[in-house]
């Protein structure tokens, strides 16, 4: 099956939930072979409800995964809106805790010298391949060994 940006974003959502839960409902399923294991994983992913998967975590995680699952195969994601879901969580946490949350505020950093860390740069929207006008495929160029001209 061909993958799309939708699939990549959903995988990122699953990774974020994994970081919070330390496991996913389809982790560690027993199977006789890889084919059976992948089938069981697919079945579990299709049957687990997002409410269950994201239980105990901010609503943004469930909303993010819902948006990903409802996207069309070729649909262009609204990265700004998806990112805003989590920025809003950060803003609420800052308000609740009464202190700004820094990019390096993680439990595993507590008590460590963070002086050598470099701050994250400002976020900018990344141009997608289908947004670049006049972009030509470089595949044939590389295949043929030409450095000067690309062909579609």
Automatic annotation (TrEMBL):
Enumerate the InterPro entries for this protein: CK1_Ser-Thr_kinase, Kinase-like_dom_sf
> What residue intervals traverse the membrane?
none
Protein name as annotated: Non-specific serine/threonine protein kinase
Q: Where does this protein come from, organism-wise?
A: Alexandrium andersonii
């Amino acid at each position: 099956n061909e993958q799309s940006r939708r699939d990549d974003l959903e995988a990122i959502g699953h990774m974020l939930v994994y970081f919070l839960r330390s496991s996913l409902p389809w982790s560690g399923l027993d199977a006789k072979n890889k084919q059976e294991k992948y089938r069981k994983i697919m079945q579990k992913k299709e049957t687990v409800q997002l409410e269950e998967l994201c239980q105990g975590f901010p609503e943004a995680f469930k909303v993010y995964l819902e948006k990903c699952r409802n996207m069309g195969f070729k649909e262009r994601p609204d990265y700004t809106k998806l990112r805003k879901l989590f920025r809003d969580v950060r803003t609420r946490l800052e308000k609740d805790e009464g202190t700004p949350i820094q990019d390096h505020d993680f439990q595993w950093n507590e008590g460590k010298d963070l002086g050598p860390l470099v701050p994250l740069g400002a976020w900018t929207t990344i141009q997608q391949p289908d947004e670049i006008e006049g972009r030509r495929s470089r595949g044939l160029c590389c295949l043929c060994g030409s450095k000067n001209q690309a062909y579609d």
